[in-house]
Amino acid sequence: MKYPEIICFDHVADTLSQFDCIIDVRSPAEFAEDHIRGAINCPVLNNEERIEIGTMYKQIGSFEAKRLGAALIAKNIGQHLHSQFQNHGKTWRPLIYCWRGGNRSGAMAHIFSKIGWPVAQLEGGYKAYRQHVNQSIPELSAKMKWTVLCGTTGSGKSRLLRTLANLGEQVLDLEHLAQHRGSVLGDIPSETQPTQKMFESRIWTFLKNANEGRTIYVEAESKKVGNLRVPESIMQTMRASHCISIEMPIEMRVELLMEEYAHFVADPDQLNHQLDFLTHLHGKEKILLWKKQALTGEIRAVVQSLLEEHYDPAYNKSIARNFSQFVDARQLRQSSLRPQDFELSAKEIMAMK
Q1: Which of 34, 284, 296, 299 could form an S-S bond across to 197 if both were Cys, CB 3.0 to 4.6 Å?
Q2: Residue 217 pLDDT
């Protein structure tokens, strides 16, 4: 076979493991936005060099830009060869891709093939991968059997999802993939949300590896998780799927949220900052009261008020309207916050057919 081999992502999406390494040669900024799962970043132009070449292309001319670009690319490929690729044997098989045109990946693939490696280059680059993701998510989601866990805020849906996953069930945890707890107070201080493209890549990776003969458990979500949009096909499928309604006494829900949002207990100023986003719904007077209670250590009272006056009314208004099978949902009452009781509830869910 002649190398570099030019391949289409549609033909290898299910067999990426055939390659010993997937190399993304785009700039670090492009790589950080999103990339093929498992790829390593070996940029042939770094962020600053890519900007420099692009500016030269527009302001001076393509010939001058290509001449300088070739020199920088050759230098950077040489550095990669001298460092992380120096010890690979002649049967080592990498897959290389760039953004779209193939100039950057083609340069590395050409050199690698001259060395003697059976290298493959991704036709259409990252853009072809993105097209595959966008086309595949609706197709994959339609094939799956879904069960949606519904319930008011703080009823333990996320803990039940984690418990189901620990028991070996298929769980699409959108909040985990989005690195957000899914409400106006849902920012996780230690984490930054991924980009929209990376969020969709994570969903695609899950669906691609899921068994369509088994149930996927998912939590009822709105169209956005923090700043990220759940793909419309996923939302449509969830909203038409079988539902299980989780119930928990409000005192227990308050306790669970105090545990889940411990950072607000430790730093009430964080909570008060987020409360500002609810001013248009509840008015300045109510927000000022909640802020005062938070600063005086009455966070438990704030949490209960938020549940009773903000979260529960919104949930009760939207759930039956948006989830068509909620009217026939099976009920499950969570009796405590102990891990063993969540496991019992998870097993009860697994037994529901």
Answers
A1: 34
A2: 98
